[in-house]
Amino acid sequence: MPVPEFTWSTYEVLAPRESRLRAPAVAPDLAAAQQTVMVELPDLTEWPSPLDKARILLDSAAEVEHALMVQYLYAAYSLKDAGEVTDTAQATALDDSSSEAWPHVLLGIAREEMGHLLTVQNLLLLLGLAPNFEREDFPPRKDLYPFALHLEPLSQRSLAKYILAEAPADAEGIDDIVELAQESAPTTINRVGVLYGLLGLVFSTEGDVQQGASGHEEWDALMRELAPAAYEQSAPETWHLPDVAFHGQSAPRQADPDDWQVGGLRVHRVADRAAALQAIRDVGEQGEGPTSEGEQSHFGRFLGIFRGGAGVPPFPAAGDWVATRDVPTDPKVDLDISEPRTRRWAELADLRYALLLGFVEHYLLTEADARPILTAWIFAEMRSRLGFMARELTTMPRGAAEAAGRVAAAPFALPSVLHLADDAAGWAVHRERTEAAIAKVEEMRAEDGAEKTNPYLADLLASDRARLTFIDTGAIAPETSFARDIAPLFRPKDVTHMIANSSLDLSQYGPVRENAADIARRLVSRGRPMPPRPDQPWTKVQIALFERWIAEGHPE
Fold first, then answer.
1. Rounded Cα–Cα distance for residues 189 and 135 (Å)
2. In the prediction, which pLDDT does 15 show?
């Protein structure tokens, strides 16, 4: 979308002494019940109607969530393995088998951003607006974004930016982090919470704001404190959506929470104003806290990485030990990756990213029987394809031998065609992208002798060819397929783990068929789960797909 310029204005309002809008550096007057608070808001007067405001805020929120998700993923994949350091505490911080380790925490937050992104899509659909999977990309910037998007290795400076962007306005004890964050960003870092606060205001009625309709004391107080500043900018009737703006009939097209039940990934399906307000509040809380679910917020978890604790060291400052591999910042295949084999893997990773985005948008465009298969493909791309390739790229050289130690990374480049027109166009785009992915793998196998015997690429090729067959039959699948639907459910690490511990090769049809009943039991087991903790369990949709494959007689 076009990148509008926003100006931020400051408004003086009276707020309670314990206001969450109070800047942490300003001590409250303990003798006064109320105090003057300076509230900074983006000027939205160019968007005169409530629907105009909702559209620009939701589009911005979608782009922010998408951008944060890929930045957090990139940061997680930039970290070294525990075996690359010798200090015990450092190894503990990098041990991805621990739920307290940095990679696990970062990937968990990134997953939750995916949930936020889907919830924002549902809010757009509720208002009769189109889904938006764009993101802020370098170099354009919209002044509602928290900071300019940069795919960069995790550092104290980048971590400080993430903390400040997710921080509540009244966060205390982070002055050093604020200073570091501002040093690392050329412009002011905007808090994501302001964006969701404004969305809460726009989705409320004026009466809701005054009466505290959500039933959540802190959130209702925040709405009452934001409203006077917003009303100074423009009249109340320009801020609150009327009842006729809500399209409850859009609910079947929205992302279904049952399809996305995986650790921390909360998706809200919204059919009316009340459900929308609950969703907006939940997203805002999960980011900056405190959360009604009793979990630690993104702000709290990022702060925990920065400060350390419970046997995990604080994140190292520049000049201390190095926690990341030497990956590039804002990688572009044509400019930053010259080693031929690595370049081909990076190009394949971008093709998988394009497939993932297309599957997610198509999922929102259809209410048809294809939804379960699209959901399975989405999780296969996230778990077994893109995630695996992103990590593998950080083990591959960027260029010539003289750049020893400088490794590559997944570029996460947006496809040239991002949005799908409709259901039929979706299948055509998936076909084109799948054909491109097949051609890339065939090129890799032809150019590099070692790739010809790479079992991962062989499985990927079989899966993509089976997807093409599905698409060519008019997206009508009489039965499941091991190559297309089941094999991609198992990540390379799952395959390696089971071969080492049970001599069971999950990449092969015969062994999986022979052990299907035991696998199905372990997928829902609390004693010996599959995959083992702390990895996230399969979703209900994935388990249902596997059980359907068994019921249909294990089609190959």
1. 17
2. 65
